Amino acid sequence: METYLWIGLAIAFFLVTWFLKRPDIRANAARELLGKGALLVDVRSPSEFTSGHLEGAKNIPVHLIGQRSGELGTKDRPVILYCASGARSAMAKRTLRAAGFTRVHNLGAMRNW
Length: 113
What we know:
Blueprint: H1 2-21, H2 27-35, E1 39-42, H3 46-50, E2 58-59, E3 79-83, H4 87-98, E4 104-109
Parallel strand pairs: 1-2, 1-3, 3-4
């Protein structure tokens, strides 16, 4: 019985984790928004960014996104976030939404581009 409980908890954890970091925008829609003035933000570390990033992306590490949100422009400007797996970009999205940004999108992992 205890084994089934642990399996159930593991499955629940996986589903919640997946739900929280799932992308909410696809690459084609993100490219369209970029063409209309959206900002593309890589929330990985500076060293990850230096090793390769999407063209035109601005690097603001997830732990600094709240402090540096003034660099994103007006709170109604579309912002597209990405990272390595989608977890950090999901956290950054929640931070920006809590700060009043209204058009924040999570592309998820950079490979989704």
